Amino acid sequence: MQPDREKPVVTVFRSRLRPDAHANGYGELAEHMKQRAAAMPGFMSYKVFTADDGERVSIVVFDSHDHHAGWRDDPEHRAAQQRGRAEFYTEYAISVCVEERHRRFQL
Length: 107
Known about the structure:
Blueprint: E1 9-17, H1 26-39, E2 43-50, E3 56-62, H2 65-72, H3 75-88, E4 89-98
Antiparallel strand pairs: 1-3, 1-4, 2-3
C-alpha cells in the first residue's frame, strides 16, 4: 500500500456565485486559474458541474499531497481566492480528500 502522500488528492469545491460575478470578471479569472492549475506539476484533472439550483461543484485532482500543496500555496491562486470571497461567491465549502481507491469502467 502506498503512503497517503503518494495518493492522488481530490479537492471538491462547492460554491454559489453572486448574481454579478460574471459582470465582475469571474469567467476570465476562472479560465486563467484553470489554465494555471493545469500547468502546475502533478495536475491530473479539473471538472465543474452546475446543479439546477445554481450550486456549482468543481473537482480538482493532483497526483500527490506535495503537488496539491504547491497549487494551494500558489500566490496567484491565493489572490484569486481573496477576490472570490470579495467579489464572486455568496458561499463556498472546500473538502480535500486523499483518494482511497479508484475503479474505472469504459466501453
